[in-house]
Amino acid sequence: MRRLRGLKALIHDAVDATVELVREGHESTSRGVLRVTDELEPLREPARAADAIRRFATDGVLSTIQFVNRSVETVTDLGLDVALGPAAADELGVPAVPLVSNAMSTSSAAWVGDAALGVVNAVVGDHLHDRASGLDLSMVLRAGDRYVPVQTDALREALPDATAKVALFVHGMATTEWSWCLQAEAYHGDPGTHFGTLLARDLGFTPLFLRYNTGRHISECGRRLADLLEELTDAYPVQPFELTLIGHSMGGLVLRSACHYGEEGGMRWPARVRRAFYLGSPHQGAPLASFGHALTGALNRVDLPATQIMARILERRSAAVHDMRHAPIVDEDWLAPDPRAHDALPLAHATHHFISATLTRDPEHPLGVLMGDLLVRVPSASGPMMSGAFPIDTSHYGGVMHHELQNHPAVYEQIRRLCAAPGEGEAERLA
Asked: Structure pTM?
């Protein structure tokens, strides 16, 4: 029901946004006409007087449409409250995800709706969050086949076989945790097999999956994740435990941000992190986001109705899409007049593994150099430009696309190998 309300509100917001685009189209046309009539002395004043009348009439019509749109929204909201009873009004306080879900598998019908929600959140997630929309994918942990609050009893029930080795998986933009199962049937012969189930089977890890709104700023997601992991430090049913962090695409940036805020805030959980894997994460930004920024600027400079409307649409892209241009992982980096990437790499005690890919098997092939894995180029996926004073590990896979890094057998084999060796004195350090 909460999602239905969110979808209805988004439709009303879309109507308002469309009205504003129509208004911008009218204004751009008017500016073009006035540029011509202003050069013709006899027509200058009559044209401006006619334009004032046009603007008054246009504003009246468009404002009426917006008023009716919002009136309909209010009336239908009241109708839903009456039809569904008092519980409908209280529903806004519950999580936007079910407490129980199906086993992770893209063969399940449930993943289709979640996949659509992931895309919507990537496009307008910051707007959904600001509006407290039911479509906002709140940050939540998935343990086993459940979404659970970070409380000991809930985690113990969801993870009866919990171990002292935890692997946290953080998905990328426009997806949810279901994306870790992509192509599972082709790769593993089982639609429900993914890195989490494989690590549990082979090395006794307990996999946890994060779900979050990928349209918000990376640093906002990182701060919230840092707080969530601090709660997990107290609530996890097996103590002490070690953390392995695995992030795909934007998920790797969110992990870096969380580690930064965890260390900066003197939290306890960063000491439990043993290793971090970044799968195709755009640490130096993504070319597509840079192209979008350049295209928006170019369209803004051409004062025609079509270009101005397209520019307004592009400007409305979510905060995270804007972030992908420079991949800022702290607030200060995107709040600055000229956004930039934060080069410092946190957690000097942990090992950091940066995994890149190219469409071509040969990474030196011109197409591979230009396109990378289709969305992220190799230098960007290979880590920040200045990774700090401690060593990092980089590896590359040829003939692999961006989304395939999440469940590719060769990538898993590397993760398994690197996770297999226990650290000496690890339990003592974590205690």
From this structure: 0.86
